[in-house]
Amino acid sequence: MKNLGSIHPLLARTTSDLDRRQFLKRGARAVAATAAMSSFPVGLVSRARAADSTIVVGFITSMSGPVSSLGIPYDQGIKAALAFKNQVGGKSVKLIALDDASDPTIAAVNARKLIQESNVDVIIGTAGSPGALAIATVCAETKTPLICIANANPQGEPGNWTITIPQPAPLMIAGAVAHMQQAGVKSVGYMGFADPWGDLVYNALMESTPAAGIKVTSNERYARADTSVTGQALKVFATRPDVFVGGGSGTPGALPYLALRERGYKGQFYGTPAIINPAFVKVGGAAVEGLIASTGPVVVFEQLADTNPTKAVSQEFAKALKATVPDATPNAFSGYSFDAWVLFLAAAENAIKTNAPGTPQFKLALRDALTNAREVVGSHGVYNFKPGSRYGNDERSRVLVKLEKSDWKLIS
């Protein structure tokens, strides 16, 4: 096997929470996952590639592990995006895709591999917030722009090289809380991941509920890899909340809802965009029927008015997705990947006018174009970024939907 030092020469700097043996095992998994991933050819671009030959995009997602229920739709979305358009300013675009196995350490290893060995111009990734934050640190150190497709909000220098595609948690939670207030809700229970995403949802809930006269009765947490949350569910149930909000995502995000229904809880369920994917619906089954969630308009684009600015883009996305992954339908996560590509294309169109791909100058120009994007229409919303702010969405990126017979229906 290839020496891991050549993949990650700064071993000591990225393994403060792992001993060397654990890191080597994970590094071996990264190499194996990279070799096994078949969504795109994982050939490497020479580090000495001609500066003006091709724009090279690195893509990292979770095709295996506990986050794969999100990572696979992300992969489907990037396939559709590449089919939608693979040239910018007369230059072809090459995509190199790697699997991080739902492991933040592997995500960081993959980011370094893409930058050091493939000289990518930009990275798009990954499926989980912890992995995305790990990639953001690497991208800042190497001055490589990152288009983050997980809901992460890196601070300091990593934030200066990152834009985040998913809607900010406060925006989406505020929509759900407004619905609760209209329904006369007085208390809400919470259980979420014990990681940055769980924190984002809980903090957003604590910000928006006081003005609505709603009390948050619990703050239970669980790991993404957990298979049972019985203890946490009993604690939530004991507080007798009127409604419940889960702060998980994908398949693991269904656990709290299942556990509460098994305990006999009959209150209304609410969710976030992080559970709007087919795997969640399949695993949740009857327990999540009637769940209300805030999400991007792409999820129900066929139900939108023709005047909605995102509808035409969603139609293009759906067409490209059908051509590349015939059995897939647009969902929140594949839509995030597609929108990341739309923003990349718009930024590259500007950056390439005065800078050659493959150079530090092009990376910097690409970063500046991304962080200053204006009125870029995607499937989830209309994006406007400014330096110092990772998020670019406004209320045009939020709708409320209800799960009815395994389909999401627009309710506002």
Automatic annotation (TrEMBL):
Keywords: Amino-acid transport, Signal, Transport. Residues 54-368 form the Leucine-binding protein domain. It comes from the Bacteria. InterPro entries: BCAA_transport, Leu-bd, Peripla_BP_I, TAT_signal. The keyword Signal applies. SUPFAM superfamilies: Periplasmic binding protein-like I. PANTHER family: BLR7848 PROTEIN (PTHR30483:SF38), LEUCINE-SPECIFIC-BINDING PROTEIN (PTHR30483). Belongs to the leucine-binding protein family. This is ABC transporter substrate-binding protein. It comes from Rhizobium oryzicola.
